[in-house]
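ok here's Copper transport outer membrane protein MctB, seq below lol
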Amino acid sequence: MISRRYHRIALVTVFVLALAAGVVVAAVGLPQRIASGVAATAGTSEVEQLRAERDALAAQQRTADEFTARIAPGLVRDALDGVPVTVVAAGADPADTRAVAELVIAAGGSVASEVVLTPAVTDPARADQLQDLSARLLPPGAQLPASSDAGTLAGGLLGAALLAPADGPAPDPQQAAAVVAGLAGGGFAEAPAGDLAAGRLAVVVTGGSYGGVDAAGSAATAAGLAAELDRRGAGAVLAGRDATPQAAVGAARTNPGTLSTVDGVGTGAGRVATVLALAERNAGRTGQYGSGAGASSPVPAV
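and the structure came out like this:
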């Protein structure tokens, strides 16, 4: 049975997504229309009208996000009561990572650790170096997955250092610090800003689509990292800005397993869905959420 709380969350999220979709649909073709207008009637009022239309659409999107940001803490309240979460940023906009972390706390959870990975992690040219470093930095007694994929191995390393297994002791914080410091020394992570503790869940926040000839490979590497983190602890959620085949979320949705994914993390609705997906993984369930390709619904039924 669908709870009243889920019904309320779903209605709000659908409203925000619908508004955002309306903005996107209305904005399609605006650059071309502006360019055509400039070419045909440079300096006329038509060009000014098109630009005003563009600005109005951008203002509507900002209003939708501000509205969601105001009500988001109430929508996720107690969803992660007492649950420590490891936050991993992989090519994410810092504002997205910060907003997700703040909502984790608003949901009653805590940010056990926050790790910012550099673009080198998803760079195919540095895959061999990342594989070698993952093996050398592995804490004593831990094991890496039987894989040659750099993202999967990096996920195994981070999971061993930063996630508490369901049937074993939590990792040593000093060993976790050594792992992240080693990754930072190799150019694969930023130096941690605070103490590192073990999380029960992990959320991997990414950006949009990767560019260049290796875009699909970079997306697959990020997806593999998140999938391996999902196998450690109580599970993980991969959140990104879109779900194209060149984005981490899109790559993960080709074979998600138990990994939950959320597209649209750059919006308030996507951030709410990300935190609710974490709560769902904590309960042993999984799903694909957002408005992009492969999403089953806007938000989890929690």
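fwiw DSSP finds ten helices and six strands in the chain. kinda neat tbh
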